[in-house]
Write a structure and sequence with these properties.
The protein is an all-alpha fold and 268 residues long. It has one domain: Orthogonal Bundle (MetI-like fold). It is built from 14 helices and no strands. The longest helix is centred in the N-terminal third of the chain and has 33 residues, at 71-103. It is globular and about 75 Å long.
Length: 268
């Protein structure tokens, strides 16, 4: 007779074996990050002047100081609000415009060169106009983030619809299906992967838009803090703002990846 207790224990032990733990992707990523921070700390302490590169230990102290004062939450909430609202607005309008352009192909051909031109335009050039139109408050930063992401959604959704097989759609039309039904049951599920890809691209772009708006005119936010630190030759402050932005982008991309896995699980 097989000893089930021993077998179960052996299975549990095998799961936590050193080779298996070290082979975990999360562990490897953590070790890589720790090694990179350790190398940075060593170089900042013994090779490069901290005026140019700062050190992770100094950045950690600054983060703790800002967190205790409440400044970290204050600046993060401003940047996250601006980028989040711009991303949400850009995704809704971008997906809607992409579907409309896919539906009215003649209008799409007429307007697509303009969309491509606006998409290729460095949106930093629009920042002074947004400041003039909307002031230095929340609206200008939201519109800056919106302008960074909306064309990504429009063009990706449009290409996703164009890549579809038209035969099932034509068949549904001959069976009397309404356009709304086709959009809800066929087009949106089919372009879902394109929309998710747009979100992954647009997370960073939305943050860039918020930061550009803060750099041009603001009194709070991570972009404002980075600019203020640079003006005071505070390298640690600059790197602190950058590290927080990197952390936000990593978390946001992981959230998008988790949502993507849930929404596309049915394809497996």
């Amino acid at each position: 007779m097989v000893d089930m207790t021993t077998t179960a224990a052996e299975v549990r032990a095998s799961r936590w074996s050193p080779g298996r733990v070290l082979g975990s992707l999360f562990v490897q990523q953590t070790l890589f990050l720790a090694a990179a921070l350790g190398l940075w700390e060593f170089l900042g302490a013994y090779v490069v002047d901290t005026f140019w590169s700062s050190r992770p230990s100094l950045i950690g102290e600054r983060l703790w100081f800002l967190a205790k004062r409440g400044d970290l939450t204050w600046h993060m909430s401003a940047t996250l609000t601006e980028a989040g609202l711009g991303l949400a607005l850009g995704s809704v309008i971008g997906v809607s415009l992409g579907l409309l352009m896919a539906r009215y192909t003649r209008a799409a051909r007429v307007t697509e060169p303009l969309f491509m031109g606006l998409y290729s335009l460095p949106r930093v050039a629009l920042a002074p106009l947004f400041i003039l139109w909307f002031g230095i408050g929340l609206q200008a930063k939201v519109m800056m983030s919106f302008s960074m992401v909306v064309f990504v959604f429009v063009l990706n959704v449009l290409e996703g619809v164009r890549a579809l097989d038209r035969d099932p759609i034509d068949l549904m039309k001959t069976m009397g299906a309404s356009n709304r039904y086709i959009v809800r049951r066929v087009l949106l599920p089919a372009v879902l992967t394109w929309i998710i890809a747009s979100f992954r691209i647009s997370v960073g772009l939305a943050l860039i838009g918020a930061l550009v708006g803060e750099l041009i005119g603001s009194s709070r936010g991570l972009g404002w803090y980075i600019e203020r630190s640079a003006g005071q030759l505070d390298t640690t402050g600059v790197f602190t703002g950058i590290i927080v932005l990197v952390a936000i982008a990593m978390v946001a991309n992981n959230i998008v990846a988790l949502v993507s896995n849930r929404l596309t699980r049915w394809r497996a």
